[in-house]
């Protein structure tokens, strides 16, 4: 699969936005989500966003990977919010330092689980558009995890549906295990704490 971006583009964007881009040796990972702005605020219910992970390997060589994902909730949860009164969570772009750690997702399989505050928009009007309303912002620990979609080896999910109620979800099972292996190596070197940065595709030059 051809990458959409380069490591240099991601690094330049992250730093231009005032965020930290990690350059330490030996799996000091940068986990960057990229929300697709080409679809505007429409709920596409597709894995049309991107998660990237970049780092120096044990030899000091830079590595860069991209995975198709969603950074937005699927239409099932947009129409029927998990927390009915305050609405579905849509992660706000930003850098969340030390926000995640490796632990079981839903008590079932290893993933990156939220451990520190993040900020989300709350969308409760149940239409086919995401509402990025600053007045709806909510900060806390809401289970905005980073996990996989399909559990089937060699398969890739097409529709988000119930896979995300605000989580960042990688579509392909093979991609997920590639990502997870890198995170496990990083944990063994740096400890069980991961930062997550969400940017928008319109910010990438």
Strand order of the largest sheet: 6-5-11-1-2-3-10-9
Low-confidence stretches: none
Q: Give the mean pLDDT.
A: 96
Number of strands: 11
Largest sheet: 8 strands, mixed
In terms of DSSP E residues, the strand content is 25-35%
Q: Which structural category do the helix and sheet elements fall into?
A: alpha+beta
Give me some keywords for this one.
alpha+beta, 8-stranded mixed beta sheet, 3-stranded antiparallel beta sheet, 11 strands
Write up what this structure looks like:
The chain has 205 residues and is α+β, with helices and mostly antiparallel strands. Helices cover 16% and strands 33% of the residues. It is built from three helices and eleven strands, in the order H-E-E-E-H-E-E-E-E-E-E-E-H-E. The strands form two sheets. It has an eight-stranded mixed β-sheet. Strands 4-7-8 form a three-stranded antiparallel β-sheet, with no helix packed on it. A hairpin with a 3-residue loop joins strand 5 (94-105) and strand 6 (109-114). The model has no long low-confidence stretch (mean pLDDT 96).
What is this entry, summarized?
By secondary structure, the chain is of the alpha+beta class. The protein has 3 helices and 11 strands.
Per-chain topology:
Layout: H1 7-16, E1 30-35, E2 49-56, E3 62-70, H2 75-79, E4 88-91, E5 94-105, E6 109-114, E7 118-123, E8 138-140, E9 146-148, E10 168-170, H3 173-190, E11 194-200
Parallel strand pairs: 1-11, 9-10
Antiparallel strand pairs: 1-2, 2-3, 3-10, 4-7, 5-6, 5-11, 7-8
């Amino acid at each position: 699969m051809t990458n959409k971006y380069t490591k240099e583009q991601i690094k330049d964007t992250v730093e231009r936005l005032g965020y930290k881009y990690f350059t330490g040796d030996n799996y000091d990972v940068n986990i960057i989500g990229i929300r697709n702005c080409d679809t505007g605020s429409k709920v596409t219910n597709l894995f049309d966003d991107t998660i990237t992970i970049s780092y120096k390997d044990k030899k000091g060589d830079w590595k860069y990977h991209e995975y198709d994902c969603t950074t937005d909730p699927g239409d099932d949860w947009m129409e029927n919010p998990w927390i009915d009164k305050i609405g579905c969570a849509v992660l706000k772009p930003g850098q969340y330092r030390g926000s995640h750690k490796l632990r079981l997702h839903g008590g079932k399989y290893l993933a990156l689980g939220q451990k520190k505050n993040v900020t989300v928009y709350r969308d409760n009007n149940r239409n086919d558009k995401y509402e990025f309303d600053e007045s709806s912002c909510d900060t806390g620990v809401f289970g905005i995890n980073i996990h996989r979609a399909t559990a089937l080896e060699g398969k890739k999910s097409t529709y988000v549906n119930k896979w995300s109620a605000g989580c960042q979800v990688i579509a392909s099972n093979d991609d997920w295990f590639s990502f997870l292996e890198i995170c496990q190596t990083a944990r063994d070197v740096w400890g069980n704490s991961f930062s997550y940065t969400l940017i928008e595709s319109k910010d990438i030059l």
